[in-house]
Amino acid sequence: MAYTPELSIRGSALLRRIAWYRKHPMTLTLEEIVLTVGMEINKIDNEKAICKTCKDRSCSACYLKEEP
């Protein structure tokens, strides 16, 4: 699924600096951040907390599970 989020100037600047720190492109860095935050929310806020509020009923697989 392709989606181009619009970031604020501050958000974009912070993402750029995190990407430089990680030595990765901003696109990969943003994906890493989203995956990490999603997994942490799922661990902290009881499992499936995000799934319970999900509005996408077409999920055939849970994206919050760790990749092998």
Short key terms for the protein model shown above:
68 residues; 3 helices; 56% helix; mainly alpha
Describe the structure.
This protein has 68 residues and is mainly alpha-helical. The chain is 56% helix and 0% strand. The chain is built from 3 helices and no strands. It has helices at 9-22, 26-44, 49-53. Helix 1 crosses helix 2 (26-44). The longest helix has 19 residues, at 26-44. The protein is elongated. The two termini are 21 Å apart. The relative contact order is 0.09. The model has no long low-confidence stretch (mean pLDDT 83).
How do the SSEs run, as a string of H and E?
A: HHH
Gross geometry: elongated
Work out the helix count: 3
- Total number of beta strands: 0
Rounded to the nearest angstrom, the radius of gyration is: 14 Å
The major pleated sheet works out as: none
Low-confidence stretches: none
What separation lies between the terminal Cα atoms?
A: 21 Å
The portion of residues assigned to helices is 55-70%
